[in-house]
User: Which sequence fits this backbone?
């Protein structure tokens, strides 16, 4: 149990376009999902916490109007990178807590590698 | 600022060796800690949870020292498949994970 999927696994887009990334919990319900970004040789940085049915909580320095998060159901959260620029190129990973596996552990999706040209 | 510090390595060890990683954290209120492993260009996978003084799972042992605010991970009888980056993670006081930059391990035949 505690399987998280992400789609797409990689995407290349042109500067100025928007990209939507989906995160799904496959075998459990996730009231809370998390979105991270990881640049090469850097640690994972939390971007935002996504709560089902309410607005996401963004970390300091993350533009909420640029990174739109929607958590419309207990198994799906989406991250939309709007007006993407080359500096947004990164590895975006979502995670979710699986209550049956522990109160604080997070299980990660396989990640989405975004390249903005 | 809450931080987790790790030696980035790399640790290059032969198969069968015992290797230990240390990690320090700054948030004295944190209740939970984790070790994740991350393979190159992949997502982190949970290796161990540490809620009390320590945890053991087969060849892997994690220990927590709250007084000194550090966590260690010991790997015994290293396998080639253990080669990865090991992420020390502070579960924080509110459950949001704080990641260290990771320690790279390379196990050689």
Assistant:
């Amino acid at each position: 149990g505690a399987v998280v999927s992400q789609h797409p696994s990689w995407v290349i887009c042109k500067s100025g376009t928007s990209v939507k990334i989906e995160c799904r919990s496959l075998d459990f319900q996730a009231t809370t999902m998390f979105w991270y970004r990881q640049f090469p040789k850097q640690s994972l940085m939390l971007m935002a916490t996504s709560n089902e049915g309410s607005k996401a909580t963004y970390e300091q320095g993350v533009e909420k109007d640029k990174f739109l998060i929607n958590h419309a159901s207990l198994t799906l959260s989406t991250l939309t990178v709007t007006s993407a620029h080359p500096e947004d190129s990164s590895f975006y990973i979502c995670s979710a807590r699986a209550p049956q596996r522990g109160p604080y552990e997070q299980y990660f999706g396989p990640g989405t590698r975004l390249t903005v040209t | 600022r809450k931080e987790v510090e790790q030696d980035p390595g790399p640790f290059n060890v032969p198969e069968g060796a015992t290797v230990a990683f240390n990690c320090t954290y700054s948030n004295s209120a944190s209740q939970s800690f984790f070790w994740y492993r991350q393979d190159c260009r992949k997502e982190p996978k949970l290796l161990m949870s540490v809620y009390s003084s320590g945890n053991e799972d087969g060849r892997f042992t994690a220990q927590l020292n709250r007084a000194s605010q550090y966590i260690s991970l010991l790997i015994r009888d290293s396998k080639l498949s253990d080669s990865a980056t090991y992420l020390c993670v502070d579960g924080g006081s509110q459950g949001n994970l704080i990641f260290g930059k990771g320690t790279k391990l390379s196990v050689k035949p």
